[in-house]
Specification:
Strand order of the largest sheet: 3-2-1-4-5-7-6
Order of helices and strands: HHEHEHEEHEHHHEHHHE
Function: Catalyzes the S-adenosylmethionine monomethyl esterification of trans-aconitate.
Radius of gyration: 19 Å
Organism: Nocardia tenerifensis
Subcellular location: Cytoplasm
Number of helices: 11
Helix content: 25-40%
Main location: cytoplasm
CATH topology: Rossmann fold
Shape: globular
CATH superfamily: Vaccinia Virus protein VP39
Number of domains: 1
CATH class: Alpha Beta
Protein name: Trans-aconitate 2-methyltransferase
Strand content: 15-25%
Distance between the termini: 44 Å
Structural class: alpha/beta
């Protein structure tokens, strides 16, 4: 379902939240660092450079992404997030733009945090823009008569794909944790023709791409493109502003 090359078309914009997330992790010498959904591995190497003495574990549910990560020298493997469990030496866990794909992921957080050892850090970031015009237009088109039959079984994510910052804070904050939760809306300046369409083609549209053959996929994109141009008009200089909200949470379990 995933196309690593398409995902990396906007690598700079997608990487910025990752760096802001791990900037809040104050681990000095972790024993084990986990990239919980490593994607194409372009950012996993950053974790290896920051904590060179740690044992690094990277995995993703997409075989295509794992192959791309391996091509970058990352020892990644295919594994579903739902099947992952921390061990007694898991001192840092990073989940960057992953959990929005996992229904009921709040339940996983309630399992993972108690299992982490004293001194551990858990850091997550998820998109918070599922009620943005880009996603509303995708859902509206997918439910029209032309597409309803082919896409009826596709679970198109809405605003409830992620929780609110307060809900994450409530789940992560316990007697054993110190929690930092915040949100940021990036006003991303995109370039090129139909840049918002290209952006969502690498993420939000992946389930739709997987459900359609090549011809229908081209037609769906052709119908979606003018809607996105209206929602996100190009500026006179040809660039396009694309607001993108993200939610961050970092939980630390102090050793004492």
């Amino acid at each position: 379902m995933w196309d690593p090359k398409k995902y990396l078309d906007f690598a700079d914009h997608r990487a910025r939240p990752f760096f802001e997330l791990i900037g809040r992790i104050d681990a000095e010498k972790p024993r084990r660092v986990v990239d919980l959904g490593c994607g194409p591995g372009n950012l996993t190497g950053v974790l290896a450079e920051r904590w060179p003495d740690a044992r690094l574990e990277a995995f993703d549910s997409s075989p295509e992404m794992v192959e791309e990560a391996k091509g970058r020298g990352i020892d990644a493997r295919v594994l579903d997030v739902n099947d992952w469990e921390p061990d007694a030496e898991t001192d840092v866990v990073v989940s960057n733009a992953v959990l929005q794909w996992v229904p009921e992921h709040l339940a996983l957080l309630t399992e993972w945090l108690p299992a982490l050892p004293p001194g551990a850090w858990f850091a997550m970031q998820v998109p918070g823009n599922f009620d943005a015009p880009s996603h509303r237009e995708i859902r509206a088109l997918a439910t029209e008569a032309r597409w309803h039959g082919a896409l009826a079984e596709i679970a198109l994510r809405s605003a409830d794909a992620v929780s609110t910052p307060a809900e994450y804070a409530t789940v992560l904050a316990t007697d054993d944790t110190v929690v930092d939760v915040w949100e940021t809306t990036y006003l991303q300046r995109l370039t090129g023709p139909d840049p918002v369409l290209e952006w969502v083609s690498g993420t939000a549209l992946r389930p739709i791409r997987a459900a359609l053959d090549d011809e229908d996929w081209r037609e769906f994109r052709t119908e979606l493109a003018p809607r996105l141009r209206v929602a996100y008009p190009a500026r006179p200089d040809g660039t396009t502003w694309f607001p993108f909200r993200r939610i961050f949470a970092v939980a630390h379990k102090p050793a004492d």
